[in-house]
Specification:
The complex is a heterodimer of chains A (246) and B (259). With 246 residues, chain A is an all-alpha fold. In chain A, 78% of the residues lie in helices and 2% in strands. Chain A is flat, with a radius of gyration of 22 Å. The chains are: A mainly alpha (246), B alpha/beta (259).
Chain lengths: 246, 259
């Protein structure tokens, strides 16, 4: 039905949307979309975890831990994400030993998708650490003092008082960074991870419908980011404190 | 200056005929500024003690040395026979015995009044949630806020927030309560409701140390009044004597300004 309509559209206007008319292209595109979504969700979760742990360790009593976190943040904030992905895939990937797979064929220890997940999570995580830090700094010293006077341990103060407050303060900045992360997953294309951009490229090389697929790509990412932004809005509304922070 | 000895003799078990808090020759500087210059005081169990004095005289710092929020440079602070500046001391253990209420209330803004009161006994003492909730509700009733249990701090007035803060401290069943200028940020009409709560506590026999500017309250409620100026205790006396026949000219000058 839908396919019929798009075939008619092609016949009348020359707009060739094979992802609706051709089941092979459609499957390819949907698989790509699925990869982008899972890549986004996994990297997003990992980057938040890195952000929280990094912010926690950034306030560590051990100077070496603080220095390591700082170094990590500096390196990942000041280098382009594409270079990071190449560094992991071509740089580190080349050094790691190759291992036999189920069929006895030698292959890299870490696959391209795994490298993409790792490097994107670290990239977004570095920014999340800085974002959480700014939120943490916004928590009044006096609130922490009150928790101390009640006998709270350091970790209890961090996870039950500081983090919940900091998270609310930095949600807008976090939202920005996560939107960026979803868009940056397209860089995984560079190491042949079959995400949406990669699938689109395969489709347009076959069907020579570059303008159509470019438009589809734009609309796809608008929709993906729209879903994320709506989700963050809902979280924001849910976490809003009646009467405000004071 | 008196150096903190590196080893502390194990203290004899504390008994109520000894001071519950004994501060001896405490020195504290923040950078170049000497805030406490050899302060000594002692408080018996069940006493209400007010510390008065001009701003910047070290009152709040003195109070904060008692629950180790401010580490001291020299001297000794002993709470229930425990040396507070013993590096081996479990600070968390100490703070369970010493409650503190602050000028800015410092409630946890993301929790309801009830949750504010419940969190420490549950998470710090590991007590049973249902039992803590019953006690927390009773404490909110005691500070006349049982109908505000599900409100967040931002929805409460300053006086109400401060009473929640008092209930939050009491939930830990402390032996000593420290009040750091708890009415200084309040509207005049809500000051009274907080003072009434503290007064009830003092009358029930809770050991209370208050840093305050409420001279009327000090006169009525305190068993003993200390006057600090420039990091030293200038004089101390029972309130009738303190307000009636202060000896030191600095005390008299201060009292003539505030009364």
């Amino acid at each position: 039905m839908l396919a019929e309509w798009f075939r008619e559209l092609y016949r009348l206007t020359g707009i060739n949307l094979t992802i609706f008319t051709d089941s092979f292209d459609q499957a390819l595109f949907l698989r790509g979309l699925g990869t982008t979504v899972s890549l986004s969700v996994i990297c997003l979760s990992l980057s938040l975890l890195i952000g929280v742990l990094g912010a926690w360790w950034q306030a560590s009593r051990i100077p070496l831990v603080r220095a390591l976190v700082k170094g990590f943040v500096v390196v990942f904030r000041t280098t382009p994400p594409l270079v990071q992905i190449y560094f992991f895939y071509f740089g580190l990937g080349a050094i790691l030993p190759r291992v036999p797979n189920a069929f006895g064929v030698m292959q890299p220890m870490v696959g391209n998708t795994q490298w993409a997940i790792l490097s994107l999570a670290l990239f977004a995580g570095a920014f999340n650490i800085e974002i959480f830090r700014s939120g943490i700094e916004a928590v009044p010293r006096s609130t922490i003092e009150a928790a101390e006077s009640l006998g709270f341990s350091r970790s209890l103060i961090f996870f039950d008082v500081v983090l919940p407050l900091a998270f609310r303060v930095c949600l807008p900045a976090l939202n920005n960074n996560l939107v960026n992360l979803v868009k940056t997953t397209t860089l995984a294309y560079a190491i042949a991870v079959p995400e949406t951009l990669y699938a689109a490229q395969q489709i347009w090389t076959d069907a020579s419908n570059v303008p159509e697929m470019m438009t589809v790509l734009l609309i796809t990412y608008v929709a993906l980011v729209g879903v994320l932004v709506a989700a963050v809005r809902r979280i924001e509304a849910k976490l809003a404190i009646p009467g405000g922070m004071r | 200056m008196i150096k903190i000895p590196s080893t502390f003799p194990s203290p004899p078990a504390w008994t109520p005929d000894h001071p519950i808090v004994r501060v001896s020759q405490v020195y504290k500087s923040f950078g170049e500024t000497q805030v406490l210059k050899g302060v000594s005081m002692s408080v018996m169990k069940g006493e209400a003690v007010c510390i008065v004095g001009p701003s910047g005289s070290g009152k709040s710092t003195l109070l904060r040395t008692i629950n180790a929020l401010v580490p001291i440079d020299a001297g000794s602070v002993v709470v229930e026979g425990q040396e507070v500046c013993d590096p081996e001391l479990d600070k968390l253990q100490l703070r369970r015995k010493v409650g503190m209420v602050f000028q800015q209330y410092n409630l946890f803004p993301h929790m309801t009044a009830l949750q504010n009161v419940m969190i420490a006994p549950i998470k710090v003492l590991g007590q049973d949630k249902a039992e803590v909730e019953a006690r927390a509700r009773a404490l909110l009733r005691k500070v006349r806020l049982e109908d505000k249990a599900d409100r967040h701090p931002g929805e409460l007035s300053g006086g109400q927030q401060q009473r929640v803060a008092i209930a939050r401290s009491l939930a830990m069943t402390p032996d000593i309560m420290l009040f750091d200028e708890v009415t200084a940020a309040l509207d005049p009409e809500t000051v009274k409701e907080v003072l009434v709560t503290i007064r009830e506590l003092a009358e029930e026999g809770m050991t209370c140390l208050l840093v305050t500017h409420e001279m009327g309250f000090a006169r009525e409620v305190a068993d003993h009044v200390y006057f600090t100026d420039h990091g030293v205790i200038v004089e101390h006396a029972p309130p009738a004597q303190f307000f009636g026949e202060a000896k030191d000219p600095r005390t008299r000058a201060f009292l003539s300004q505030v009364l």
